[in-house]
Amino acid sequence: MTTNMAYHLKRLHPQFHDDSSGSTSASAAAPRLTQKKIDLRPPLSEKRKKEITEKIAEFVALDMRPVRIVEGEGLKELLRTLEPGYTVPTRATVMDVVHTKYLSIRSDIYMAIQDCEAVSFTTDIWTSLQMEAYLTVTSHFITGDWRLESFVLETKKMEDSHTADHIARELTEIICEWDIPSSKIVSVVHDNAANMVACTNQLVQQPRWGKMKGVRCAGHTLQLCINSALKQDPICRTVAAARRLVSHFKKSAKATTALQEQQKQQNVPLHKLVQDVVTHWNSVYLMLDRLIEQKGPVSAVLTDESVSKRSDRDLELSTSQWRTAEDIVAVLKPMITLTELLSQENNASLSATVPMLMNIKKRHLVVHEDDSRTTKIIKTTLSDEMDRRWELKGPGLEISVYISAAVLDPRFKKRSFLSDDQRDEAYSVVAELAESLTDRSCQEESDTVDPGPTAPKQDAVMAMLLASDEDEEEQDETSEMKVYLKDFTKCNGGPLEWWKKNEDRYPKLSRVAKRFHSIPSTSTPSERIFSKAGFIANKSRSALFPTNVNKLVFLAHNFRRIRQPQV
Questions:
Q1: Do residues 154 and 177 make contact, with C-beta atoms less than 8 angstroms apart?
Q2: Which of 33, 87, 247, 450 is surrounded by the fewest CB atoms within 10 Å?
Q3: What is the DSSP letter of 125?
Q4: 119: enclosing H helix or E strand
Q5: End-to-end CA distance of the chain
Q6: Which spans of this chain does the record mark as coiled coil (predicted)?
Q7: What is the pLDDT of residues 68-103, one digit of tens each?
Q8: Backbone angles phi, psi at 83, to 5 degrees
Q9: What is the pLDDT of residues 451-505, one digit of tens each?
Q10: Could you give the CA distance from residue 330 to residue 297 in angstroms, rounded to a whole number?
Q11: Does residue 54 contact residue 97 with C-beta atoms inside 8 Å?
């Protein structure tokens, strides 16, 4: 009887059969059987095993775990408890599944890009903990139902020096691999680094990139404006003193503990001090703002002889420095909100860039007689830097990509900061582009069908020759641009929602709107990849090939976006 049970286990429940001794006698088998808890569940099907393996691969990609996690005893023990009949796959098997998922999602994104009207890109270079440089390229486009999509296309290891020529070659190779037509390419958004600026200047000259525009990251440009203001005296000395003060608390466990006690005694929020980081936007503002909040507890700790040495007390800010810090925070606070608005990824923001800059100059950066010296210096420097870096006062503003995007945003189409001539020119630029896109679309359609007789072309020529001035005026009055400028339909849900509802009324302009509203105001989407990519390409994953880094970053960013249904 016992032998029959052992045979049954071996055949239908192999996970509970133990034949390590090689004995088949009843006396040998009996003890082993009594020591095991028999699971009456049927053995795992191949389908179920495949599902679990795929979920492990998704777990590795989405949570950015090292592939070698499948070799850990912790995961094996967990799966042994949840699914006793499942054997954890090898690293090679998991990477095979990751590769399959990569190809599947890549195919979906490829088709989405082929179906879209236009596509823009953000790009930047980041360095892993292994000091390996990678170039990440993210695509941005608007779907047929006016949903803004953002997908990582490629993360490539930069083997050579980061020259403009090398970056331009890599970017061109990427768009060629994705078969993106030059007619669809709208812009490349990048930071203000000299090599990136030179790179886009090269791309503009290449036919493969069509009429692409290079757009400097608004967030990075705004940060450069702020940095210029912070370099002025006495502002720079106050920031340096605050930096030293915060650094003291960061390095002293005793001072940090004392600060927490003072926070409780003074009923101040139990917040940690913030250390500014050169590469992080707005970090100086955050440092000063937090320091002002914690002024009481910080001062109490520094004057406590049981906690602070005599030399530490010299770190305390002077009265004038505290006042300067307060002035800096007061002026920079709206700039932080502006940066956050410009960095939005889920809605069009390029169209709002210049209007918001003009508003902040007009309503916040105007110098008043009762402003402190510090406030006047910051306001004047910020205003001058904005004018210089965005060329707000120079010729050609009306034909810039920022103004064209603003014209196609119902909230900003009546540009009050432009002269009448500049507004007319801005409207003309957009209207002409709308007509050229329509003509090109008609030409592409005609190229795909039998041209037929030439009579229609002759009719068009005759109509042009016999047209009257009255016909031209009537056509001008009924043009889409004229009607659009007189349209005061409310734009409550943002420009994309507005165009979704009004696309049928303005078929020509809507095509242009999809182009300009696909341009992000900042390169933040690519920079947000850095934290994911850096997590993937860290010390515990130093053996990863660059192709695997690309696949894992690709899946970590794109998997949920392409698989989750939109609401």
A1: yes
A2: 450
A3: E
A4: strand 119-127
A5: 61
A6: none
A7: 889 999 989 999 888 888 999 999 999 999 999 999
A8: -140, 85
A9: 555 444 455 555 556 655 554 444 454 589 999 999 988 888 889 999 999 999 9
A10: 21
A11: yes
